[in-house]
Amino acid sequence: MTKVEKKLSGKHFQGSADGEQTATLLLESVGGHWHAAAPTMEEKDVPVKRRGRPKARVPMETRMEYPVTLPITDSKPGAIQAERARRSTFILLTSDMMPDAKTALQQYKGQDPNEHGFQWTKSPVHLSAFWLKHPSRVADLSYLLLLALQFARFMRALVQSELEDQPPLELPYRTVKRPSETVILEAWHDSDMQRQSNESLSRYQWTAVLPCQRRLLDALGVPIDRGLICNSSGYIFGTKELKRTSW
Predict the structure, then answer these.
(1) β-pair type (192-197, 175-176)
(2) Rama region for 42: left / alpha / beta (φ>0; ψ in -120 to 50; rest)
(3) Which of these, 132, 163, 191, 227, has the minimum number of CB atoms within 10 Å of its CB?
């Protein structure tokens, strides 16, 4: 609204209706929700400039112009306070009815690691939207997500512990000293494994490993020169020293 006021201060309109309409449209474009501004017009006699030297004893021609003033007043303190209260209000749901609201809020705010974990599990990168069909499957999915989060946290702790006194991890897009579970998983986007299957078994072997991926595998204790052997259901039941030439 202050910018609108500055923009209008250098303009002069030929009619009061034009000035009021222009000021109103500019105010609507920025939205004056919390402050009031009523454009006012004043008549002003402005000389008309002509080319050449004016003739002597000839009255100077003038015209009537209407400059716009836009006083901005904070006339809606109640609306501002109500909006602040609305935006700062949230609902905290809990099954524990013993603590009061303040204690429950303090306990909730003290769960930063848990909140970050929930944010990770709700990421659409790890879990997209789908229909569970039965309510009982919601609890099953929750346990699966907690197991996935527990595995990711364990993986992060192991990698950070192994890389504690080593140089930072050089990723293709940045350098990280203490990689998070998200960074570790994102590092495998460009990984490549070769698959060979028969009627009941599938063998997987690394075929292209970046230096950063090799460091993560070493930190996790995963041997690169060993392949994974899976059955038709995807269950990994063993590893075996595999030679690519035998494939």
Answers:
(1) unpaired
(2) beta
(3) 132
**Which neighbouring-strand residues pair with 201?**
231
| Number of DSSP helices (H) and strands (E) in the chain, helices first | 8, 12
CA 101/CA 124 separation, integer angstroms: 32
Confidence class for position 246, pLDDT limits 50, 70, 90: very low
- What stretch of H or E contains 108? helix 101-109
Whether the model clears a pTM of 0.70, i.e. scores above it, the answer is no
Return d(Cα 73, Cα 70) in angstroms, integer.
10
Distance CA 36, CA 52 (A): 46
Locate 119 and state its tokens.
């944010």
pLDDT tens digits, one per residue of 65-121: 767 777 766 667 777 788 888 888 888 888 888 889 889 888 888 877 777 777 777
